[in-house]
Amino acid sequence: MPVSLLSETLNNGLTVARGYSLMLERFGKVSALHSDANGGYRIMPISELLDITTNALNNRFGVPDFKYGFNRHDLTYCIWELPDKQSEIIDVYQKALSNAVSHNFAINFMPAVRFSSSDTATSSAALIPLFKLPSGTYFRLGEGVQVQHKRSVRQFTKDGIELFMDRSSELFAMFCECADIIKKMAETEIYNPVNCLVGICNKLRIPKKYADVSREEVERFTINNPICSMHDLYLSMAEIVGYASRTGATQNTILLLEENVAKVLSLDWKEFDIGGVVAWGGAA
Question: What are the backbone dihedrals phi and psi of residue 102, each rounded to the nearest 5 degrees, phi first?
């Protein structure tokens, strides 16, 4: 839409709008408009959130290793790896696999933390515990910290910044809590792993062009023994995100794939562990 028409549309809308809204201006342009009718929305400055994050990492994880990040109109995203705590955290992971049928072990995994947020009301402020596979792909096993951009509207509710600070101190415990998830996954046997993977991808509309590489990997490591663990299958699905990244997918696509792969943990895998032939669905 031409700038003149966009400006006219915005001005006409503002003349009839009720209540209050927040308008974000960057470099002389309106970047976002957010309804604030209930008085609860508050932009938490990215700079403050990053200060809280780096303090939390430095206080509990030794010297974090910043790997990469980006800052664009609608999203800020950063990843730190945690080499000083690798041995301690991975030891917890390994113990969770001790009685498992899993083909995968965590000796070479690297713990990491991802920060993401948006000051345009499109995303909460998030700190997600991650693990990095030897291939370079990161995967998650829990929800991590998720704090909405809100200010306190009641006497006994915390402001978003306060809550984010409190929750950031729980990161190390969140890594340890992953052990229960890992143990359950590693002890859950999947008898039809290829069908299970394809069925889950169909359910979550994960495109075949990214997921088929994971299917091929599962076929290879189950060629002599068709039974694998839920843990093995999930790590193969995590590579969907890595493959998308390596083949030039957009950052939005990569983040969407990561979110969809994480949703796998909430599904009933036995529902997809069926015999016969399971064909790819509509996601190309």
Answer: -65, 145
Please report, for residues 24, 125, 201, the alpha-carbon distance to residue 215 in angstroms, rounded to integers and kept in the order given.
Answer: 44, 33, 10
Q: Where are the domains of the chain?
A: 3-35, 46-185, 188-271
Question: In sequence order, which ranges of 61-192 are alpha helices (DSSP H)?
Answer: 86-96, 160-168, 171-186
Q: Three-class SS string for 149-179?
A: CECCCCCCCCCHHHHHHHHHCCHHHHHHHHH
**Residue 136 dihedral angles phi and psi, to the nearest 5°:** 100, -5
Interval 211-238: pLDDT, tens: 999 999 999 888 888 888 898 899 999 9
Cβ count near 8 (within 10 Å): 12
pLDDT tens digits along 3-29: 778 778 777 777 776 665 666 655 566
Instruction: Kindly report the pTM of this predicted structure.
Output: 0.80
